[in-house]
Structures are given as structure tokens and as C-alpha cells.
Amino acid sequence: MKSRKLKAFAIYHLPAILYATLIISLSSISNLHLPRFKHFEFDKVVHFIEYAIFAALVLRSFSHLSPRFRPRTVLLLSLFFMIVFAAGDESFQRLIPGRQPDTVDFVSDVLGALIILLFLWWRKKGRPADAVANP
Q1: Burial letters 114-130, b for 16+ CB under 10 A, else e
Q2: Which of 28, 34, 48, 49 could form a disulfide with 43 if both were Cys (CB 3.0 to 4.6 A apart)?
Q3: pTM value?
Q4: Res. 128: pLDDT tops 50
Q5: 8-64 pLDDT, tens per residue?
Q6: What DSSP state is assigned to residue 94?
């Protein structure tokens, strides 16, 4: 029984935890700047993709917290978590020399999370929460 729970933790929850750790680690790097291409800020695309991946991992994790949660509840919890995490991540950067919070980064984070969450929910609409987590 214990090894089954440990295996489930490693499969469903650990990837989201490790990815969150990676995001915070990257946010902790002083003076981290991505290249700009003329008037296009590449870092906004990176934020969008980074949080889309994270949101998919969070959705998968939250889908396995309780079998009683409906897919819509899991979706809303995941979105709420992503918004709070993105806000915390941007605020955290205020403490790092050479970094500062950026509202446009926050919006890119949330949009990346929102779009992938809606896509995954729409793709698995009406199926049990377990189906959302195992496409």
C-alpha cells in the first residue's frame, strides 16, 4: 500500500513540484535577460510556454488529489493555483538583485496557463477527473 502511494506521488505530484522548483530557481538568477528581436520580446513567449507546461503538470497533480473532485473543480483549482503562483513568482523577483516584477510577464504566465488548462478541459470535457490527468 505504501509503495503504491509513493509511486503515485512520484508519477502525479513530483513532476509539478520539481517544475515549480525550476521556475523559482530561474527567478532567483540575478540579471537574467533573454534576447530581444527588434520590437519582439522573446521572454514573453518563454513565460507563456513555461507556465503552459507547468499548468498541465499542476492539472495532472490536482486531478489525483481526490477522486471526488469534478473536472471543472480541478480546472478551477488549477487555474487559481497558477494565478497565485505566477503572482508570487513575479513578487519574489523584487528580492533578487537585478530583477524586478513585470506585469506583462505575469499576464504571459497566466495566459499560458489558462489556454492549456481550457484546452485540456475542453479535450476531456465530461470525463472523470482521472481522464483529464491521463490523456
Answers
A1: bebbeebbeebeeeebe
A2: 34
A3: 0.84
A4: no
A5: 899 999 999 999 999 999 999 887 766 666 666 778 899 999 999 999 999 999 999
A6: G
C-alpha cell at 20: 515549480
Mapping DSSP onto H, E and C, the string for 8-52 reads HHHHHHHHHHHHHHHHHHHHCCCCCCCCEECCEEHHHHHHHHHHH
Which whole number is the average pLDDT over 89-93? 95
Q: In terms of Cα–Cα distance, which of 33, 31, 51, 37 is closest to 113?
A: 51
Distance CA 85, CA 61 (A): 15
Cell 490527468 sits at which residue? 133
